[in-house]
């Protein structure tokens, strides 16, 4: 039977574009604060695994024979395409007790791959929404310049110390968000395992264990993989199908994709087991960061030759002033530094004099607050138009005796208007009181 669908779609070019895109993304490292290698295994590796499964099955649907059927009444008669279309949706296996198991997943399983690929990208979207821009920029700088040996290496260590010292004891929220995203990724793994078990009618949950040692029965197809993905099935057309002129007809069908499905789902089962194991171990690792003894293990590094202070002393001093979120940030910074540079970073963090140098000056903070208040006052004056004026505070009442004393004092009270007029005339005509003749002078 010819393959269903048109073969005019350039699916190979689509697959090539996806492969090139995957290669370009594979070289990128996780620089977001709430991102990591385990999450990358979910939203990138597993995402592309399901996406590749979708396109591989979709390609075969357009370019391969997906089903071959013959009639039990006359095997030489070519089966109509509308009959085959029904057999694609409702093939079944009939057991000795006349019970049937309909293989409803055969036609739509590749769309399940596309759905799961979208679900596995959820951790990436969540990690982007809870991102810390400053810490992300710091990790990006560390990643880009960690292989350099010039002055920039000293600068990135200095920037790391300045950021950690200035934002000390403020990263607990970041730590709990990162823990939540990893738990979310593990829940997606568990959901995928049980969802595929539901789609495959209860055969997927223990697929790898029951199929071991993967011995096949090519004669009667009684092995577990052939029972789960039977290559041959039966299709029955009844009066309810309205296509057989009110008669019943049985067809024998060869489901050619079952040989592909049994291998693809075995790889998916193995990958999900590995993914869940790694996720559980990494979540335990994140939880252990809350214990002091494990913090010392995370911060431990090889002692450089030029170091004079004991490494354990430095680690104990840093562990005392840091919360669990700060330890997580230092651990992320450690991944991009050498042992010598990481020792330098911890040495500066453990030194109180160095820490004070990175702390903001209280006077500067006061000036910044004053500037902020002045700016807010200016904005309020600009936006006050059209608003009711607030009642201004009135001056306190004046004592009558004090007022009478001021009025009786001649030095305070100005002279009368007659004196003022005479003084004004004298000031305005000062030359009239003198001899102004040029000849006389």
Automatic annotation (TrEMBL):
Membrane topology: Multi-pass membrane protein
UniProtKB keywords: Cell junction, Cell membrane, Gap junction, Ion channel, Ion transport, Membrane, Transmembrane, Transmembrane helix, Transport
A GO biological-process term: monoatomic ion transmembrane transport
UniProt KW Ion transport keyword: yes
Entry keyword annotation includes Membrane: yes
Record GO cellular component, one term: plasma membrane
Domain of life: Eukaryota
Polar residues: bias regions: 419-441
UniProt GO MF annotations: gap junction channel activity
TM spans (from-to): 45-62, 105-122, 174-196, 268-294
Compartments where located: Cell junction, Gap junction; Cell membrane
Region Disordered, residue ranges: 381-441
Assigned protein family: Belongs to the pannexin family.
Role description: Structural component of the gap junctions.
UniProt protein name: Innexin
Protein's organism: Armadillidium nasatum
Gene: inx2_1
């Amino acid at each position: 039977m010819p393959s269903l669908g048109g073969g005019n779609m350039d699916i190979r070019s689509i697959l090539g574009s996806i492969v090139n895109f995957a290669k370009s993304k594979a070289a990128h490292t996780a620089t977001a604060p709430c991102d990591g290698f385990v999450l990358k295994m979910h939203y990138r590796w597993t995402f592309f695994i399901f996406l590749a499964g979708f396109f591989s099955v979709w390609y075969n649907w357009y370019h391969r024979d997906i089903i071959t059927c013959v009639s039990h009444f006359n095997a030489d008669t070519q089966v109509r395409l509308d009959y085959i279309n029904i057999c694609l949706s409702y093939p079944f296996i009939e057991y000795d007790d006349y019970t049937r198991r309909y293989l409803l997943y055969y036609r739509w399983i590749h769309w399940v791959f596309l759905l799961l690929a979208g679900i596995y990208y959820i951790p990436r979207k969540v990690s982007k929404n809870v991102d810390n821009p400053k810490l992300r920029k710091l990790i990006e700088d560390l990643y880009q310049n960690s292989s350099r040996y010039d002055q920039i290496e000293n600068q990135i260590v200095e920037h790391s110390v300045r950021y950690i010292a200035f934002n000390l004891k403020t990263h607990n929220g970041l730590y709990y968000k990162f823990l939540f995203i990893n738990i979310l990724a593990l829940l997606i793994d568990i959901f995928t395992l049980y969802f595929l078990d539901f789609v495959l009618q209860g055969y997927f949950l223990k697929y790898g264990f029951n199929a071991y040692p993967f011995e096949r029965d090519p004669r009667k197809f009684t092995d577990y993989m052939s029972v789960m993905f039977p290559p041959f099935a039966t299709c029955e057309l009844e009066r309810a199908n309205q296509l057989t002129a009110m008669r019943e007809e049985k067809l024998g069908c060869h489901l050619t994709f079952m040989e592909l499905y049994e291998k693809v789902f075995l790889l998916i089962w193995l990958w999900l087991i590995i993914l869940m194991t790694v996720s559980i171990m990494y979540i335990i690792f994140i939880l252990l960061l809350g214990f002091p003894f494990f913090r010392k293990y995370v911060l431990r590094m090889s002692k450089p030759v030029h170091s004079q202070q004991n490494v354990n002393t430095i680690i104990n001093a840093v562990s005392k002033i840091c919360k669990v979120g700060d330890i997580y940030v230092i651990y992320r910074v450690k991944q991009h530094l050498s042992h010598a540079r990481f020792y330098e970073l911890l040495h500066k963090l453990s030194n109180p004099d160095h820490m004070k140098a990175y702390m903001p000056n209280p006077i500067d903070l006061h000036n910044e607050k004053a500037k902020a208040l002045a700016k807010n006052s200016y904005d309020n004056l600009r936006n006050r138009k059209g608003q009711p004026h607030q009642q201004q505070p009135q001056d306190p009442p004046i004592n009558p005796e004090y007022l009478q004393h001021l009025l009786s004092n001649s030095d305070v009270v100005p002279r009368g208007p007659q004196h003022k007029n005479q003084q004004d005339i004298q000031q305005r005509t000062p030359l009239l009181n003198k001899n102004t003749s040029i000849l006389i002078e």
